[in-house]
Design goal:
about 500 residues; alpha+beta; four-stranded antiparallel beta sheet; about 25% strand
Length: about 500
């Protein structure tokens, strides 16, 4: 921002011993960055005559805010030329404040090349008169600026439609067009000059508006691509032909108005993380959405149990080994509970007897990895539902230890797939604790952000995370006793009851 940089570098200057020359400075809009300048002494002058020399500054619109600034030029003249956006009223006001009135002639403050591209009031009043009620001009040979008034506005979440009253200069042919200035303004204290430079840093957005086809039609504009629930400062200027040499200078400008766009649905909550701290609880945290588009009032949290994938039964876990899914915590939670849980789960899994060929095991592992990736993909899109298990029967030989697979559940019978219930809760903070969950079960958790207009615009789209509760220590115990009966010369038949509420699917039994 050029204005703030200049003020930081030059804002403490109080006295200039020689002259001040502002020439060909396209980026300058105001000289207010000389915040503490009180005196231009004139020990040396431009061409021996001018203490202040202002030439060819295409965007200069304001000198100082004369209601809060005092400047003295005890000797020398001022020269202003080819400053198309600097109104003569601003220069005349400076003559009075600095005590130089009467020193300059018409050639040194040229009415044809100063303010010829601006909507100006050529009077003694300061620049604030352009934004206030209609005031009487102080120079009898000049015109006056009319205050444009807005007559309607229609506001949506991303656009504002404005209309203002018709403006009729004495010669309607002198009215060329309108310019609408608008920008985001969190506070209602903006000025069209403060913090602005012609390079575009923190400047107003500018929109040209052609005259209506009918002289009876009120002019208007549609401001598009705005941000929802954002306050904008807006004002309008009329662009007219300037004929200063004839003493007919007219213009029109509105006051700065502040309009807030309507709210919209927020964007999704960010960076969702989860952890399970028990067999029946999951803790979820997230960050607020990037664009709230309103005042966030609550978050809608939904969770649903996911079915274990029945395709996991097709693998030979007794020979290739089994790695249990874990419910470890996200490392972003900042505690060490997660890795310990995963390690404990692996330690509780008994080792299986290795297969004969290592290459065959690696091939099966690769195949399993592909199937597991497909399972994850399908689970995200269409959650699967579990099938009913049958009774489990296993046969063992008199070896030291062996494994037995449970029979694959039957898919026949036309039984309807059960749908797991979806639970929901509203929370006002950026975290939630889900309780009364099933042990060692995977859940999909969706979080929606909702602002104060959720009843009309809805909540955000969902961001989701998958989380698994911790296992229940006693859930995989065999209930009751193991029974046996002879099955042959060197074998026995063992029977036992299936765990009533195991930790997930039963993929194998370990027999020792």
């Amino acid at each position: 921002n050029l204005a703030s940089e200049l003020q930081s570098s030059l804002g403490l200057i109080e006295t200039i011993t020689g002259f001040l020359k502002i020439k060909h400075s396209f980026a300058l809009v105001s000289l207010s960055f000389f915040k503490n300048l009180k005196l231009i002494r004139g020990d040396s002058m431009v061409d021996g005559n001018y203490t202040l020399y202002v030439l060819d500054n295409q965007n200069l619109q304001q000198l100082w805010d004369w209601s809060h600034h005092v400047l003295s030029i005890p000797v020398g003249k001022m020269y202003f030329a080819f400053n198309p956006k600097l109104c003569l009223a601003e220069i005349y006001r400076m003559e009075e404040v600095t005590g130089t009135k009467g020193r300059q002639n018409k050639a040194e403050i040229n009415p044809r090349t100063n303010g010829d591209r601006a909507s100006c009031e050529y009077g003694d009043g300061d620049i604030r008169q352009l934004r206030g009620p209609l005031s009487e001009p102080c120079h009898p040979s000049t015109g006056k600026t009319q205050t444009l008034r807005f007559i309607s506005n229609v506001t949506e979440s991303d656009r504002i439609f404005l209309k203002w009253e018709r403006y009729r200069p004495p010669e309607y042919r002198d009215l060329l067009s309108f310019i609408v200035y608008y920008k985001e303004s969190p506070f209602q204290n903006v000025s069209e000059y403060v913090g602005q430079d012609a390079c575009g840093a923190q400047s107003w957005n500018v929109l040209d508006v052609e005259l209506p086809l009918s002289s009876e039609q009120a002019p208007g504009v549609a401001l598009l691509n705005l941000r929802p629930w954002t306050q904008y400062a807006i004002f309008v200027r009329a662009i007219t032909l300037t004929t200063a040499e004839e003493g007919r200078n007219y213009g029109a400008q509105s006051e700065v108005v502040y309009i807030r766009t309507m709210p919209a649905a927020p964007t999704v909550p960010r960076d969702v993380i989860s952890m399970s701290n028990s067999s029946s609880h999951i803790v979820v945290r997230w960050k607020p959405p990037t664009q709230r588009n309103g005042n966030i009032t609550y978050y809608l949290v939904l969770w649903q149990q996911l079915a274990e994938d029945m395709e996991l039964y097709v693998n030979d876990y007794c020979h290739k080994g089994l790695k249990l899914p874990t419910s470890s915590a996200d490392t972003r939670f900042g505690d060490g509970d997660g890795p310990e849980v995963e390690q404990d789960a692996e330690e509780r899994c008994c080792p299986c007897r290795p297969a004969d060929g290592q290459l065959r095991m690696e091939g099966e592992a690769e195949s399993f990895q592909k199937k597991f990736e497909n399972f994850l993909h399908n689970s995200i899109i269409i959650p699967r539902t579990p099938k009913r298990r049958r009774d489990v029967v296993a046969v063992t030989s008199p070896a030291n230890a062996s494994s037995a697979e449970p029979p694959v559940p039957s898919r026949a019978g036309g039984e309807p797939k059960p749908d797991f219930q979806i639970f929901e809760d509203k929370v006002v903070r950026d975290r939630a604790v889900l309780s009364r969950l099933r042990h060692f079960t995977e859940y999909r958790i969706d979080i929606h952000a909702c602002n104060h207009a959720a009843h009309t615009v809805g909540c955000s789209a969902a961001t989701f995370v998958f989380a698994r509760t911790m296992p229940e220590l006693q859930a995989d115990n065999i209930p009751g006793n193991v029974t046996w009966e002879p099955a042959g010369k060197n074998s026995v038949l063992l029977r036992w009851e299936e765990p009533r509420n195991p930790n997930g699917l039963i993929l194998k039994y370990e027999i020792k």
